[in-house]
Amino acid sequence: MSVVDIQAGDLRSDGIATVGDYIALLKPRVMSLVLFTGLAGIVMAPGSVDLLTAFTALLCIAVGAGASGALNMAYDADIDAVMTRTTGRPIPRGVIAAGDAYAFGGFLSALSVTVMTLLVNDLAGALLAFTILFYVGIYTLWLKRRTPQNIVIGGLAGALPPAIGWAAVTGSLAVPPLVMVAIIFLWTPPHFWALSLYRSDDYARAGVPMLPVVSGKRETRRQIAFYTVPLIIAGLLPAILGFAGPLYLCTAAGFGFLFAYCAVAVLRERDEAREPAAHRLFGVSILYLFVLFAALIAEHALSIAPFHGVGI
Questions:
Q1: Is the Cβ–Cβ distance between 168 and 48 less than 8 Å?
Q2: CA distance 53 to 147
Q3: pLDDT of 226-259, one tens digit each?
Q4: d(CA 118, CA 162)
Q5: What is the pLDDT of residue 16?
C-alpha cells in the first residue's frame, strides 16, 4: 500500500499520549513565530488597550495557530509517516489517533475564535477565523498535495497575525499591518523553498509536489532569488512609509543584505547532495523575520518610532 492510499483517519493510537504530545500537535515553534508577529501588530497599533485584552488577543492568536497545526497534522498523518523530519510527530508515532487530533484541533479553533470575538472584537475574531479556515481548508486540504504553488498561496494564513493583532486594538485595518502581512507573505516562499531544497527526497517520497520535486532544484533556486527582491523592498517599506524609525531601517537594510547574499549563494550552489547554502539561507530567513519584527517592537516600546503604538 502506498502512502497516498493511507488515510489519516486509519492511523490509530497504540501508545499513551502525554501532555507534551498534545503540545507537539500545536507546532509550538510555528506558534511562537505567529505569536511574536501578532505582538508586533498589537504594539504598533495606535491607541491603547488594557493588558487583559492584549493578553487575550495574543492567547487566541496562539491557540488558533496551534489548532490549525493540529488539524494539519491530523490530515497529513499519512505523509508525515514517511517523511524523515516528521516521523517523530505524535500521530505517526502512534500515541495520538488522527481522530483525536481532529477533535482537539476543532475544539481549540472554535474556542479561540469565540473568545476573540466575544472578549476582543468582531474584526479580530473574523480575521482569526479566516486564518484558520484558509490554512486548513485552502492550504492543507487543497493546495499542499496539488500544486507547487502551495507555499506561495498558502503563506497568506501565516502572514495574517500582525493584522489580527492590530485589529484587536483598533477594530480596523490600516496600511502598517498590511505591510507587515506583505513582508511575511513574501518571506514564506524563499524560507520554505530553502528547506525543500535539502528535503526534496522527503517530499518526493511522500508525493508532495514541492517546487524542487516538480520543477527541479535549478528552478527552485531561481524562484528563491526572484522572491528575495520584493521581500527586501517590502522589508524597507515600514521606514519608507514613515511608521518605523532609524533602528528599524538599519536592521532591515543590514539583514536584507545578508538575506540577499545567502540567496545568491543558493542560486550558485553546486553541492546538490548536501545543499549547504540552502541550509544557511533557511536559518538566516528565520533570523531575518525575527529581527525585523523585534526592531519594530523595540522602537515602539522605547518610543523612538515616528508614532507610538499601544500603551500596555
A1: no
A2: 39
A3: 999 999 999 999 999 999 999 999 999 999 999 9
A4: 20
A5: 83
In words, the CATH class of domain 17-301 is: mainly alpha
Mean pLDDT on 215-232: 97
pLDDT above 90: residue 207: yes
How many CB atoms within 10 Å of residue 175? 12
9 close to 212: Cβ distance less than 8 angstroms: no
What are 34's three cell numbers?
Answer: 505567529
pLDDT at 10: 46
**What Å distances lie between residue 24 and 88, 93, 247, CA to CA?**
10, 12, 35
CA distance 296 to 16: 43
In this predicted model, what pLDDT tens digit does every residue of 41-79 receive, in sequence order?
Answer: 999 999 888 999 999 999 999 999 999 999 999 999 999
pTM: 0.91
Q: What is the 3-state secondary structure (H, E, C) of the chain?
A: CCHHHCCHHHCCCCCCCCHHHHHHHCCHHHHHHHHHHHHHHHHHCCCCCCHHHHHHHHHHHHHHHHHHHHHHHHHCHHHHCCCCCCCCCCCCCCCCCHHHHHHHHHHHHHHHHHHHHHHCCHHHHHHHHHHHHHHHHHHHHHHCCCCCCHHHHHHHHHHCHHHHHHHHHHCCCCHHHHHHHHHHHHHHHHHHHHHHHHCHHHHHHHCCCCHHHHHCHHHHHHHHHHHHHHHHHHHHHHHHCCCCCHHHHHHHHHHHHHHHHHHHHHHCCCCCCCCHHHHHHHHHHHHHHHHHHHHHHHHHHCCCCCCCCCCC
Orientation angle between helical segments 276-301 and 217-240, nearest 10 degrees: 10
| 294 pLDDT higher than 70 | yes
Identify the residue whose cell numbers are 532544484.
217
